[in-house]
Every structure is written in structure tokens, then in C-alpha cells.
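ok so i was messing around last nite and threw this chain in just to see what happens. nothing serious, just curious
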Amino acid sequence: MRPEKGGMLEFLQQLDAKATKLTSYHGNDSPQGHPGEGQGQRQEAEGQRTSDDDAVTEMETMIQHLQEKKKQLKQKLCTGPKQVFGSLDNKKLRRFKVKTEADRACVRRATDYIKQRKAEELKKAYSFAGISMARVSESCVSVTWGTFYSGQYRESYQAHINVSDSLKIDQHTLPTFLPLEELSSAHLNSDLKRFLWAVGDHLNAYVSRREQLEQAKTANPDLLRGEVEASAGFDLLKLTLTAQRQQFNTTLVYKGGLNTRPTTVEIQADDLSTEETTDRIQEAFLTKSLPEALTDIATYLNSSL
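result:
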């Protein structure tokens, strides 16, 4: 219902005009008609009134939306830089000159306040992603990444970032298989936020693959027999599926370090299995989490073999 051009003012004017028109119409609930008007005309009038009622409802919904938007904008204005600098508008800010020591102190306080607000908002955003930071010294910041699986906390990893000159990792407890050098070269000094997020994504993907395998072992002991070979990052798994005297030697590859489902599935089956069966197993691994895939495969094999 928003106009494509003309701006918000024109849009509000259109709403007001429509409201006035509808109000004047509903103010005359019993229009005088000619005695000879038939049932068809009365039905047409009722249909028009229903249509107008729908328009009123739509307009009221739009007005509520605009009022909520106005409230949000007011809230943003209340915490913006203008509040820090008092009643100075943008033009006055551009002409503002520091003349006295009191002016300098005022500007320093305002600047420190803005920096503090930004730092608090940044820390809050990081905390939602499981990232926390603390200053160890003037030249070192400690970063901690928390990992989660199915909404449950698992473990944390830590790194000390030297900030004295160019940023660099001094020491850390991150897994050795994590492509830390690659991520540092690409993002550490050019986009710190992207670096922190990328490390967190790799860690949570690793934890997800590991926990999926543990769940799969517990949920499907009859299907998943023998030892499962796994790389350090759980991005390469070799497992054997056994059902109804048939055996499927399966290799799962998770390419890139960020995938929680295999990107490649290789199956070596015995002579008793069919191509349809191997295709069904492959599809389950590619489209479902590991525990769900094994449960689906077990159900299929037990019903078809």
C-alpha cells in the first residue's frame, strides 16, 4: 500500500484523505434512497460498505505500524550522538570550535562516552555469538570462543592477540587442524570482526561433527559396528554399516572445515546390494545430520532387505 514515489509525507496525506472520505461515508449510516430501489441496489451498497470496512482495517493496521516505527526512531534518537553534544545541530557541530579548556574537557567526555557505548554494543554482539574479550595488558587482548551444540554449551578456546603494532596471535588453545594461519593472513589485520566470526564458525562446525558422531554411535549400535576412523577435525570419517548380512564400507568427507554434513559420500558395498540401496544411503548422508541419516538408513535396510 506504500506509494512508489512522493515520500512519507505524501503517503500520510493520502491516508488522511482516505480516512476523511470513509468517515464522512459512515457518518451517514441511513442514506435516503428512492422508494423504488430494489434488492440488488441494497446488496451493492452493503458490498461497498464491506469493502470500505476492509480498507479502514487495513489503514488502521498501517497506522499502528507507522506509530511503532516512530517509537523505534525516537528511541534511536535518544541514544544518538546528538544527545551527547546537547542541543547542537549538525550545522552547529561543523562550526563548533574548542576555545577553552572546559570545551576540551566536554568534547573528551562526549567522545569517551561514544567510544564506550560502541564498545559495549560490540561486546554484546560478540557475546551472542559466544565470543568474549578481556584486556590482559596494554598490548594484549584475550579472546575466548565458546562452542555449542543443540543449544548446549560444550567447551571454550582462547587466544591472546598482540595489539601493540600490527595484530598477531601470541598464544592460543585453538585446535591444530584449524586453518589459523590462513584466517589470520586473510582477516586479522584487515577485518578483526570477520576473523573472530570465522574462527568461531570453524570451531562450532568441528564440535557439531564430533557430537553428531557420538550421537550416531549411541542411537544406532546395531547398524554402526566396529571402530569408526575419524580425522582430528572429524572432517573425514570411515565407518562400516552392517544390516541383514550386508556390509557397506562408507567414507564421509566434509570439505572446507565449515560443513556439518558431508560434501562427498563414497560407498563400497558387497555383491548382494543394489544400486538403488547405495543411492538411498548416499542421499541420506548428504541431506540429513549423521544421527538422522543412520536412523533413516537402518529403517530402510531393515524393511527392504
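not much to say yet. The radius of gyration is 33 Å.
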